[in-house]
Structure formats: structure tokens, C-alpha cells
Amino acid sequence: MTETEKGKAEKTEIIITGFGGQGIILAGRILGKAATLGDHRESTLVQSYGPESRGGACSAQVTISDSPIPYPYVRNPDILVCMSQGGYEKFGGLLREEGTLLIDRDLVRMGEDDRPRFAIPATRMAEELGRKMMANIIMLGFLTSVTGVVSPRAARDAVAESVPKGTEEMNITAFNKGFDHGAALLKGRRKKASGKTGA
């Protein structure tokens, strides 16, 4: 359960999934660090790799809570972030009914699935920045903006502390791109919703 307007939910379970080489585990680590060091909450990270790390399926399970976390594994996430088709096929069915689904628009095809989702062309945006490897940071900015699961300041600080020296500024730019995309998307949806209620 994520509550953006009303403040943070007491506990939020997140799965970030994709394939090896996309920086999925790093994204999970940054998210947990932002929650713990920046927002002073509890967090756990469970990482999982497929048989071959680069190209194989991998996932990061992150739990963020206001109280101690007795069990770190995520069975039914409140938030599911998919950066590969394989990740979506493996974890899509686990998302809670009222959960939030975020996908990389160019890498995930959902077929008949009509659940609400938030889509961003994260990989394409990273390529436009000249660094395909920063798609995970763009997605992290998008996740922060759309769900409010961690504060933007905590997330930016965690990004700066976690990326290779000398790339901090570039990664913050990538984070901001994802964050701004999410903010614009939410604004558009709110406008659409208020237009419907006003009709």
C-alpha cells in the first residue's frame, strides 16, 4: 500500500526486476539506503540472480517499514518495477490487486493485462543521455516520483553516494529525468481525472 498524498504507509514491499547488467540490484540497494539513511526508516534487501548474471533474470526485493522487519522476502509486492519482459512474466502475477506497476515502456509488452500502470521509456532516455547503463537510475527517479516511497532528497543523496566517483552529476541528471517524467505523468492523470469529474 503506497500513500503519496496521505504520507508514507507503515510498510511497503517492492520488487525491482530485469536482467543482469541493467543495475537492478544497485537500484534496490540505493532505494534501501535512501529509506534508511535519508528517511530514517527500516529497510531490507534480498537479491536474486538467474543462472547467468549478465542477461539472466535478476530481482531486488526491498521492504521499507516504520518498524523492524521480521521477514525480508517479498511475496506479494505493493510496487512492482519491471525492466524486462521476463521479469514481468515471472513477477507480474504476484503484484497485489491494489498495487502499483511500473514498466520500461520499450522493453515490456503487457498484452491483455489491463491493470493500471506507469510506463517510462527509461532505456531509451538513458541512451539519449549517452549512457544506457543509467536506465536503472532513471527508473529510480520515476519510482520515487510516482510512489513517494522515499523522499526525493534521500533518493538523490543515496544515488550520489552509490555510483562510481566522477559520475555523480550525470547520475543525478538521470534521476531527475525519471523524476520529472513521473511528475508530468501524475499531473496529466490528475488533470484528466478532474476533467472527468467536472463533466
Note the main attributes of this structure.
single chain, 6-stranded mixed sheet, disordered N terminus, 6 strands, Pyruvate-ferredoxin Oxidoreductase, domain 3, 199 residues, alpha/beta
Report on the architecture of this protein.
This protein is an alpha/beta fold. The protein has one domain: Pyruvate-ferredoxin oxidoreductase, PFOR, domain III (Pyruvate-ferredoxin Oxidoreductase, domain 3). Helices cover 42% and strands 20% of the residues. It has a 6-stranded mixed sheet, sandwiched between helices. β4 (79-82), α2 (85-91) and β5 (100-104) form a beta-alpha-beta unit. α1 (24-38) packs across α5, α4 (135-147) packs antiparallel against α5 and α5 runs antiparallel to α6 (168-198). It is globular and about 45 Å long. The two termini are 30 Å apart. Mean pLDDT is 90; it is low at 1-8.
